[in-house]
Amino acid sequence: MSTQTALPQGGKARREQFATRWAFILAAVGSAVGLGNIWRFPYVAYENGGGAFIVPYLVALLTAGIPLLFFDYAIGHRFKGSPPMAFRRLSKWTESIGWWQVGICFVIGVYYAAIIAYAAMYTWFSTHEAWGDDPEAFFFGDYLQVADTFAPSFQFVPGVFWPMLVVWLILLVVLGAGVRKGIAMASMIGIPVLFVMFIALVVVALFLPGAPEGLNALFTPNWSVLTDPQVWIAAYGQIFFSLSVGFGIMITYSSYLKRRTNLTGSGLMVGFTNSSFEILCGIGVFSALGFMAQANGVEVADVVANGIGLAFVAFPTIISQAPAGVLIGVLFFASLVFAGFTSLISILEVVVSAVKDKIGWSRWTTVIVVVGLSGVVSLLLFSTTTGINTLDVTDAFANNFGIVGAALVAVVVVSWLLRRLDNMVGHLNTVSSFRVGRVYKVLVAVILPIVLAYMWISDIVLKAQDGYGDMPSWFVGTFGWGMSIALIIVAILLSLLPWSDRSALNRELNDNLRPDSESGDEPLVGSAPGVRSTPASHGRHTDTPSHPENPEKGA
Amino acid sequence: MDPIAIVFMLIAIVVVWGGMAASLVHLMKNPDHLSGDEGATDAS
């Protein structure tokens, strides 16, 4: 079933669209609010100055997170395409950047589904505290049945395989239903449910004995750390990884916006809502950790954890010991499921959108092929007894090498090589209420590349010198370095493939550009701040151009 | 809770949640069709 709607003028099809900007905002919040908010932010804040962390955190949000969000919005909205198509319209030489981002999304998507499956099973385990007296042994032994070797096995773990299969089937239906009935609907249901559940969790956690000690640990400021550059890098890293920027998601989602959409106003809302949820997560998680410390007669510092250790080892311990532990468990793990699933939808939609744009298949055909193949790879690699190790290393490299590297290349290419930042600023100001200008350009062209380059290079040097964890070098070489470099090579190869006549590049309308200007050098609107639109765009109060194919007729 | 921790928790809440509230108000006051250079033109 194709969701494209043919237009009478010129025979070009209209791209799928979110019905309202609120649908887009909820979908973007659903993408940004993910596992990292819940299990990463509280730990990072605690480790990097506690209450004082709010200073670098806010600076990073305002100088990197939101500017990069606007940057992605500008590219996706102006060039109306998935990352490969948007970058192809920017310049035919930059299509591979888009495919790099698509490849990163594919890799993250296939392992992300496994974590959602863990959380779904733990929602059930919480009802009867299935982990007994030793949550760590239960998680790695009884539940995951982790093998002693690193070489991928094909011994499937039923407790992981079946919930993962369900995740992929639901994903198939949601993505197949399209932007409005699938993606937007999932977020319009999932995000309110997530917020209600997590607020309920925070309220319960705040009344646990020991919660004040946990909050003391999180919010007592340690000003001395603010002179440590690593703390500032940690703040930029948290903002960067939390906001779902730099790897194609926001480009894809903003390509589904109506032409007249307040981009920067919506972006501010998304950025601050994501951070608001992070603060809520910090309060909830550290209240619970404060209880855990008190119950075991130790300091909060002795029980602080993040990631999988926090979710599947520390929280089960809390659930076993706390009054209303079952309630806490169900709320916590169900929140992980909802937060993770709305993010996974956005991650896989990047891949679906890119394949659909390039080949010109219908949405359902594309979804069945892309989600089907992704699901098979996901189940083969991550539902087995060696899945957790593969997940660990691919996660580390996909984020620190892939996302950071692709974002760095994108901002440098657009700002310095193509010198198109003025176009992006012009486009934002043409349709948005919150104007950006010289300060914004300095942030994107100078500050962002410096921060991203530092993060990227320092991580490469660290991993090259020390390896990754205790994993054997061949394993890190294959699933870490090998996977990362393969993504770049595949991206270049895919960018060399021709766009078919049925592709979105040739069939879909871009009402921001003149029809004969594929490169985007001749915009209908927004070539620079203050430059007026052509007569075709004057006097319009709707997002539908009167003569999108032939602007001269609009005069 | 210690007073200093309470103060910083409140600062974090006020600044970040306040930012969200301000963004919401800003967005409500700026509907899509009246935003940006095109919106200014259309409104005039």
From TrEMBL, chain A:
It holds the Pfam family SNF. It comes from the Bacteria. The keyword Repressor does not apply. Keywords: Membrane, Symport, Transmembrane, Transmembrane helix, Transport. The chain crosses the membrane at residues 22-41, 53-76, 97-125, 160-179, 191-211, 231-256, 326-352, 364-384, 396-418, 439-457, 477-497. CDD domains: SLC6sbd_u1. It is found in: Membrane. InterPro entries: Na/ntran_symport, SNS_sf. Residues 540-555 have a biased composition (Basic and acidic residues). SUPFAM superfamilies: SNF-like. Residues 512-555 are annotated as: Disordered. It is a multi-pass membrane protein. Belongs to the sodium:neurotransmitter symporter (SNF) (TC 2.A.22) family. NCBIfam families: Na_transp. PANTHER family: TRANSPORTER. This is Transporter.
From TrEMBL, chain B:
InterPro entries: MaAIMP_sms. Keywords: Membrane, Transmembrane, Transmembrane helix. It holds the Pfam family MaAIMP_sms. The chain crosses the membrane at residues 6-25. NCBIfam families: MetS_like_NSS. This is Methionine/alanine import family NSS transporter small subunit. It comes from Citricoccus zhacaiensis.
